Each structure stands twice: as C-alpha cells, then as structure tokens.
C-alpha cells in the first residue's frame, strides 16, 4: 500500500540550534514516526519543509519537542505574494472543508527577520479576501488557526525589501516552548550554582527518550534540574550526590539577593512546585565511586551532568594517608575526607556504570567538556557496550565547549568490560587552567600597558597646560 | 526513603561485605504521604522487586496490610492488590532512622527522608 505524504512546515525557535536535529531524530525514533525531508534543512534557517503520512504523527512530534515552535500544514509556499495567491486560488477545493460557518478562525501574521507594526500586519491580510472564510473570528483558541509567514532571512541587520519566502497554512500543533517558561530558574524554589537551564534539561530528557513510567537516575543530581525535566515526561526519578549540604538544601544560596535558603529547599520541593511529586522516588547522599544499587538494578535511562571541576570540585571520598582510621569518638560527626576524582576516571566510571545498570536499549545522556581546537571524536569516552548515537556541541567560550552525548546500551557487558581500569580520555582542565592562566597574564600585561599609556597621555596634557600658564 | 528504594539498595560495596542485602531498617519516624496511583507503573516494577524483602521491610514498619506472603499470579488486573502494593512501595516513607548493613553492622543515617550512604575515607 502506498502511503500518502503530506507537506508540513516545521518552525523552530532560534535558540540552541545545535540540538535541533538530534532532538527531532530522537523523537521520531521514540514514536516510530515516518518523516521525510521535502527539502534538506539548512542549519541556520528556522524552518524545515517536511512530509508526514498522518496529521497525528505531526501532532505527536510537536507534543514532545522543545526546539519546535509550530507545525503547520503547508497550503502554499512562494517567493512573492502574487505567486502565493495564485497557488492558493488554484488549490481552493483543498481547503474549503476547513471553512465552515460553525468554525471560528483566526489568521496570524508572522514576519521573521523584519519588524512590522500591527497595522501593517493587518493590511497584509486584506489581499486574502478570496478565501472562503465563513465562521466567526476568534482570537483565543479558534477552531482553525491559519498562519501567514514572511521570511526575511536570519541576518537581522539590513533585511531585504521583500521577503525571500512566503508560507501559508493551517496550524496543526505547537511545541513545548511554554514549558520552558514554566520551569524557569527565575521562579524555581531550589537552585544551585550549576543548575541546568530548563530548555537544555528538557532536551536531555528527549535525547533519553523518556517514556511515561520509566525509572531514571541522575548520579550527580545536585539541585535536581534534570530530574524535573524527566519527570515532566512521566519518568520516576532517582538521584544521588556526594554533597550532603546540597541535598539537604543547606548550601549557601545561589541567588545573589537571597541571604538564607528557605527551610524546605530541596529536590523534592522542586518536584512539588511543578506538581510532579508523585514522580519522585528518592535522592541519596552517595559518592559515585561507591555504588549502593543492587547489581541487578536496571534503569531505563541515566541523565547527568558530571562535575568538570571548574565551577565545582571533582572529588570522591578517600585519603592519601595509608592505614588511616577514623577514631571511634569522632565517628558520628566525621565528615569524610575527599581526594581528587579526575575527569578521565569519572567518565570511565560513568560508562562502566551505564553498561551495567542501564537496560539494554536504554540511553545514557551526559555532558562532556572539550577543547574546541583539540576536539575530534576519538577524544570522547567509549565503552564496548555503549553506542554513541548523538553528539551535539554547545560552545561555552571561544576555546571551550561541552558536548551533549547520547549513548545507547547495545548489550550486557562481560566481566572484563565491567572492570575496565584504564581511561583514554584527556582531562580537559590540564589545558583549561593553562589557557586561563595565560589569558590572565595577557590581561594583566594589557592592563599595565593601558595604564602606562593613560599615564603618559595625562602627563603630556599636564605639561602642555603648565607650559601655557 | 521509600521501600521501593530500600528494595534496590545493597551495602556490597563496603570492603569485606559479600552480599549486603537486604539492609536492615531502624525507623524512628515513618510517614505515609499520598502519591498518585498508577496501576501500570506498579505492575511494571513488581517483577523487579524482591517480594520477601518488601514484605519484611513493610511488616517491620507496621504497613504490610495483610498482603500475601507470596506474590500472587495475575496481579496485573487486581486493582485492590496493586493499590496496596502502591502504598507499600511509594507512599510509606522513612523520615528519620537508619539503614544497617546486615554483615558489617555499618549504619547509614536517614534524615529528613534522605539516606546518607557516604562511607568514610578509611572504609573505601
Ligand atoms: C555539574 S553539577 C550537577 C548539577 C545538577 N545537574 C543540578 O541540576 O544542580 C555536578 C554535581 O556532582 C556532584 N559530585 C561531585 N563529585 C561527586 C562524586 N564523587 N559522587 C557524586 N556526586 C559528585 C557535585 O556535588 C555536584 O552537585
């Protein structure tokens, strides 16, 4: 049976563009949706021209996408208004069924890359008087929402006189942009210094292909931002972290204006704030180098942002002293000593842990810091049971970035694969701190020369003034 | 700490401990808090649960509600049964108390519902 493909316009938010393709591909695979490109998407453009075989597929995709703003059933596309009108007039029969005296409607005008006043927008619509519009106009939640979009390119300076592209169609579904607002860190009860922003957290949950009823873990949970996102999609969440004060909400407040943390700040309070408390399982205070999960425990996904040792310490419990024993009298109140837990070892442990504690086909989604100029795929962590299925870069500065890695567990590990002792990856901080040191030095030198310059200028002026006296 | 969590923890990582399962529970404050009942989820996790361990833990906290000593067959459609299990797994919570390693006797304090599983530097 041949399928009937229909054209749709996917309109994206121009934020975190690097994650767009990976997110959509992940969701297509999660929902087993067939989608084909009508035209190969260009990286920087906010829209894709695609085809689906059913409207429900398009709706399903939008219902989970964080990058997507709108999905529009495409009725016409042209590079001039006249051309658009003639296309639409020729297809009149096709969209007549959408207009009905009982159906309220609205037409939205969007101009991308160039600003128009409300009046200008309304006058653009007047040329559509041939549309068989019958129902009442309703601005809020109309039965039918039509969209007219003019695209002036994405280089916002000096847009052209006329749009490059014009689109017209019917809005089918919207993405999850509102959820980003709802989870905003500005209004979140409990945050830490390294809390992940909601959009990236949701993107991570989508890379993990969270399904309702999944059990997931973040072993470096901090304030639990990744748990919140996963729980939004129906996951039941576990977290663990070495930081006692963090999990009990007793660290110094992370908001500049806040003097003291509230009594009940913790991961659970965040879940409650978003009415997700039923998805909360537990958080444990635990060092990732001592695993308390029973050997047969399998998670549906592991989503995490391990410490890189820039904004927070990378530590584990331990001591360099040999034969050291904590004395009996200090046992109850003893705070364990910590030693350095380097990046290569953290990622080795994380991948070995995932190979053991993920279900087969489950995903490990984690960030990995890199030096941009040194980067190639070979410097990423690997494990024989984990297949890298997505890898997106988020630049952090000119020289550094972090990569969002998605691994899929392909098979259970052998005994040797559970005891991998080496790590081939580099500690990116070796270079990070050297470069920072250099740039600090440069800055000092620059400041010094600037000062000297200013001083010289000042002196010449002063002398000049004195001469004139 | 919920009993679902207790069911999947072991202290095997302590030096010299071979099984470390199940951990003993000593509770001084237990709370039952309402969690939305999702029968599918309960049915899905049940196969991963050690039934005896759950039974003993719940009984020691006084929350077993006369459930059978053995996991019955065909529980998937038995809503009453799933509801009771839901309560035991997700609603009963140890707020203050201790988890105790069955082999070494090492104690892990639970404060405000959060278990502290940190070992000291001389134990790792
Ligand atoms: C980048 S932060 C994660 C922040 C988290 N995503 C959030 O929403 O707040 C890394 C976390 O790892 C924790 N951590 C550092 N070393 C650890 C260790 N050895 N075992 C477990 N957690 C550790 C830190 O306490 C910190 O909370």
What report would you give on this structure?
The complex is a heterodimer of chains A (469) and B (124). Chain A is α/β, with parallel strands linked by helices and 469 residues long. Chain A has helices at 20-31, 55-64, 81-90, 92-95, 118-125, 177-182, 198-207, 225-232, 244-247, 267-273, 343-357, 415-418, 428-468, and strands at 6-12, 35-37, 47-52, 68-78, 105-112, 144-151, 165-174, 215-218, 236-241, 280-285, 299-304, 315-317, 338-340, 358-371, 386-395, 400-409. Chain A has two domains: 6-176, VC0802-like; 180-426, Rossmann fold, CATH 3.40.50.150. Helix content of chain A is 30%, strand content 25%. In chain A, strand 8, helix 8 and strand 9 form a beta-alpha-beta unit. Chain B is of the alpha+beta class. In chain B, strands 1-2-3-4 form a four-stranded antiparallel sheet. In chain B, a hairpin with a 2-residue loop joins strand 3 and strand 4. The longest helix of chain B has 13 residues, at 79-91. Chain B is globular, with a radius of gyration of 15 Å. The chains are: A alpha/beta (469), B alpha+beta (124). S-adenosylmethionine is lined by residues 192, 194-196, 220, 222-226, 241-243, 246, 287-289, 305, 307, 312, 314-316, 341 of chain A.
Which strand-content bin applies to the residues of chain A? 15-25%
CATH architecture of the largest domain in chain A: 3-Layer(aba) Sandwich
Question: Distance N terminus to C terminus of chain B?
Answer: 24 Å
Indicate the CATH architecture of chain B. Answer: Single Sheet
| Biggest sheet record of chain A | 7 strands, mixed
CATH class of the largest domain in chain A: Alpha Beta
Shape of chain B: globular
Radius of gyration of chain A: 28 Å
Termini distance of chain A?
A: 99 Å
Classification by helices and strands of chain A: alpha/beta
Count of helical regions of chain A: 13
Mean pLDDT of chain A: 89
Q: Going by CATH, what is the homologous superfamily of the largest domain in chain A?
A: Vaccinia Virus protein VP39
Discrete helix count of chain B: 4
Please state the oligomeric state of the protein chains shown: heterodimer
What percent of residues of chain B adopt helix (DSSP H or I)? 25-40%
Structural class by SSE content of chain B? alpha+beta
What percentage of amino acids of chain B are in beta strands?
15-25%
Family (chain B): Belongs to the TRM112 family.
Keywords (chain B): Cytoplasm, Nucleus
Protein name (chain B): Multifunctional methyltransferase subunit TRM112-like protein
Subcellular location (chain B): Cytoplasm, Perinuclear region; Nucleus, Nucleoplasm
């Amino acid at each position: 049976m041949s399928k009937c493909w229909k054209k749709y316009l996917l309109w994206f938010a121009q934020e975190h563009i690097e994650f767009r393709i990976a997110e959509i591909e992940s969701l297509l695979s999660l929902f087993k949706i067939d989608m084909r490109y009508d035209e190969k998407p260009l990286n920087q453009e906010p829209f894709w021209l695609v085809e689906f075989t059913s409207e429900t597929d398009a709706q399903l995709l939008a219902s989970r996408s964080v990058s997507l703003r709108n999905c529009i059933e495409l009725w016409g596309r042209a590079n001039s208004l006249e051309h658009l009108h003639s296309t639409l007039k020729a297809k009149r029969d096709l969209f007549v069924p959408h207009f009905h005296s009982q159906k309220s409607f609205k037409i939205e005008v969007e101009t991308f890359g160039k600003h128009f006043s409300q009046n200008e927008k309304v006058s653009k619509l007047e040329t559509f008087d041939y549309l068989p519009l019958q129902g009442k106009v309703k601005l809020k939640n109309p039965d039918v929402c039509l969209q007219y979009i003019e695209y002036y390119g994405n280089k916002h300076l000096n847009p052209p006189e006329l749009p490059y592209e014009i689109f017209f169609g019917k809005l089918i579904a919207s993405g999850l942009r509102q959820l980003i607002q709802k989870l905003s860190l500005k209004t979140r009860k409990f945050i830490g210094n390294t809390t992940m922003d909601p959009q990236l957290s949701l993107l991570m949950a989508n890379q993990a292909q969270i399904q309702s009823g999944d059990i997931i873990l973040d072993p470096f949970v901090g304030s639990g931002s990744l748990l919140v996102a996963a729980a939004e999609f129906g996951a039941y969440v576990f977290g663990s972290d070495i930081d006692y004060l963090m999990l009990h909400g007793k660290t110094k407040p992370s908001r500049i204006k806040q003097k003291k943390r509230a009594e009940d700040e913790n991961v659970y309070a965040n879940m409650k704030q978003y009415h997700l408390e039923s998805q909360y399982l537990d958080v444990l205070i635990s060092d990732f180098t001592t695993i308390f999960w029973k050997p047969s425990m399998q998670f549906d996904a592991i989503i995490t942002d391990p410490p890189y040792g820039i904004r927070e310490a990378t530590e584990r419990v331990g001591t360099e002293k040999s034969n050291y024993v904590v004395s009996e009298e200090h046992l109850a109140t003893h705070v364990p000593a910590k030693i350095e837990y380097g990046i290569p070892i953290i990622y080795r442990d994380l991948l070995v842990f995932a190979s053991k504690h993920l279900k087969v086909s489950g995903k490990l989604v984690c960030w990995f810091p890199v030096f941009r100029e040194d980067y190639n795929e070979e410097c990423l962590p690997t494990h024989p049971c984990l297949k890298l299925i997505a890898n997106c870069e988020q630049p952090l500065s000119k020289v550094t970035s972090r990569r969002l890695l998605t691994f899929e567990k392909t098979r259970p590990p052998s005994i040797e694969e559970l005891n991998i002792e080496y790590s081939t990856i580099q500690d990116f901080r070796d270079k990070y701190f050297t470069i920072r040191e250099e740039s600090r030095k440069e800055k000092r030198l620059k400041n010094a020369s600037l000062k000297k310059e200013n001083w010289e200028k000042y002196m010449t002026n002063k002398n000049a003034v004195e001469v004139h006296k | 700490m919920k009993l679902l969590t207790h069911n999947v923890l072991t202290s095997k990582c302590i030096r010299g401990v071979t099984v470390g399962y199940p951990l003993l529970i000593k509770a001084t404050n237990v709370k039952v808090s309402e969690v939305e009942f999702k029968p599918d989820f309960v049915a899905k996790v049940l196969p991963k649960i050690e039934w005896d361990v759950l039974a003993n833990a719940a009984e020691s906290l006084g929350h077993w509600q006369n459930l059978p000593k053995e996991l019955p067959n065909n529980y998937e459609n038995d809503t009453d049964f799933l509801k009771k299990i839901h309560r035991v797994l997700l609603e009963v919570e140890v707020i203050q108390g201790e988890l105790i390693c069955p082999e070494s006797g090492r104690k892990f304090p639970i404060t405000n519902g959060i278990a502290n599983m940190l070992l000291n530097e001389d134990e790792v």
